Amino acid sequence: MQILEATGPRSLANFASCWLCALAHLLITGGAGFIGSHTALVLLEAGHSLVVLDNFSNSSPESLRRVAELAGLSDASRLTVVEGDIRSAADLDRAFNAGARPALAPKSIEGVIHFAGLKAVGESVQEPLRYWDVNVGGSRSLVEAMRRHGCRRLVFSSSATLYGYPEAGPIPETAPVQPINPYGHSKAAAEQLLADVAGSEPGWHIARLRYFNPVGAHPSGRIGEDPGGTPNNLFPFISQVAVGRRPQLQVFGGDWPTADGTGVRDYIHVMDLAEGHRAAIDRLLSHAPELLTLNLGSGQGHSVLELVRAFEQASGCSVPTAIGARREGDAASTVADPSRAATVLGWRTRRSLAEICRDGWAWQRANPQGYGSPTSA
Ligand code: NAD
Ligand code: UDP
Q1: Are 273 and 345 in contact (CB under 8 A)?
Q2: Spatial separation of the C-alpha atoms in residues 145 and 96, rounded to whole Å
Q3: Residue 228: predicted pLDDT
Q4: Is residue 64 part of a domain?
Q5: Which of 127, 224, 290, 304 is 20 to 30 A (C-alpha) from 44?
Q6: DSSP alpha helices (H): ranges in the chain?
Q7: Residues with Cβ within 6 A of ligand 2?
Q8: How far apart, in whole angstroms, are the C-alpha atoms of residue 274 and residue 257?
Q9: Looking at the CA of 253, which ligand is closest?
Q10: pLDDT tens digits for range 64-108
Q11: For atom 10 of ligand 1, which residue has the closest CA?
Q12: E strand or H helix at 350, and its extent?
């Protein structure tokens, strides 16, 4: 695999604007992945400069080449990519040191957005040790590196999966954390680790963001979700049926206690989610130390069949479905109460289900095989 490296110094003009606008130099772990790549684009467009650390275990460097292109970077001066693993202290040090450029930009990494991790529920049941190793051990290594490098601002990718089988109705952050699989346990443990660290020494600025169901793609169709193998999640599965890669969608249960009998989720456009990260890091950069826990969702629930219909409308393609058995471990309905994020960050979702489907289809149609990397098979 080709390793991308910084190819040039930050220009003096950029550097001057950093000082004037309090733009930051940020480390993005897992920045080549689905949510990380969209967030990297939003942060670059906002003027921040980034170091991405990724081992490309579930992504391709091509996503970052396209991010650079969409951000209009004429050189690589605001985007440095380090191939490495969050569990390796040496790789983390390389990433933190890549952020410090004494000659032209005497700034080191001021904040971290930590996306790197494993996220497949079924796989986590088969390989729990790997999930604890990467999601918990990797987060611990990262926090240790942050302490070594004097960086105490961290946005962490958490998940609504923490809520397990939630009670009916929108879920507030105060709902019990009761995960039902090793993936959820690893996210809960990493959240706890961060709370313990924040409680143990002053000066930490931490936002634990609990995402609901991130879907869609950048409207250009240049970057999007590229799941390896058969998608576990509904949206990429529907997209692949629409584009002809798979014959039909199996709907996991038609007898749920919901309006049409199919499962309800809170689908959030990945660009809304990316903007939520920008709001969170901007908050951490400008406020006193704090530990935030915030749901990032739309507050709107949509059923499987509603999503299928919206996708058919957006794509003009039919998506054959067959109602099958319920999937083990599924909840009937999971919808965010996103009001705390609105109050604290001034952020809320802006994009509709129709836009989610339009943009997801633009990506799928233009990239039927994803980025074409081995993980896209
Ligand atoms: P993704 O797999 O597309 O991105 C994760 C990135 O991390 C990939 O680029 C992968 O190569 C990298 N990575 C994995 N292990 C690594 C390691 N040990 N060292 C360095 N890099 C490593 O996933 P995503 O959908 O973008 O999710 C990002 C984060 O958000 C994850 O932590 C995930 O658990 C969390 N999350 C995702 C969803 C979702 O539905 N996509 C929902 C809730 C939470
Ligand atoms: N789902 C489905 N068929 C699939 C994948 C998912 O019917 O092939 C349903 C699933 O039961 C749930 C919804 O789609 O009701 C969203 O599932 P996904 O795995 O995308 O998200 P999660 O369940 O993790 O929130």
Answers
A1: no
A2: 8
A3: 83
A4: yes
A5: 290
A6: 12-21, 34-45, 61-70, 89-98, 121-126, 128-131, 138-148, 182-200, 234-242, 270-286, 304-315, 339-345, 353-366
A7: 213, 232-234, 237, 249-252, 263, 265, 304, 327, 330, 334
A8: 32
A9: 2
A10: 999 999 999 976 679 999 999 999 999 999 999 986 554 445 469
A11: 58
A12: none
- Domain encompassing residue 60: 22-224+267-300+335-350
Residue 288 CA, ligand 1 centroid: distance in Å: 28
**Ligand 2 pocket mutation pick from 125, 187, 233 by most atoms within 8 angstroms of CB:** 233
Q: Is ligand 1 within 6 A of the CB of residue 373?
A: no
Task: Find the CATH number of the domain harbouring 75.
Answer: 3.40.50.720
On whether residue 46 sits in a domain, the answer given is: yes
Residue for token pair 């494993």: 118
Give pLDDT tens digits for 219-271. Answer: 999 999 999 889 999 999 999 999 999 999 999 999 999 999 999 999 999 99
Number of domains the chain is built from = 1
5 part of a folded domain: no
Report d(CA 357, CA 319) in Å as an integer. Answer: 13
pLDDT score of 133 more than 80 = yes
The pLDDT-based confidence of 9 (bands split at 50, 70, 90) is very low
Contacts of residue 21, Cβ cutoff 8 Å, sequence gap at least 6: 47
- Please say if 183 is a catalytic residue: yes
Q: Which of 87, 119, 134, 270 to mutate to test the pocket of ligand 1 (most atoms within 8 A of CB)?
A: 119
Ligand in closest contact with the CA of 263? 2
Q: Which of 163, 183, 211, 267 is catalytic?
A: 183
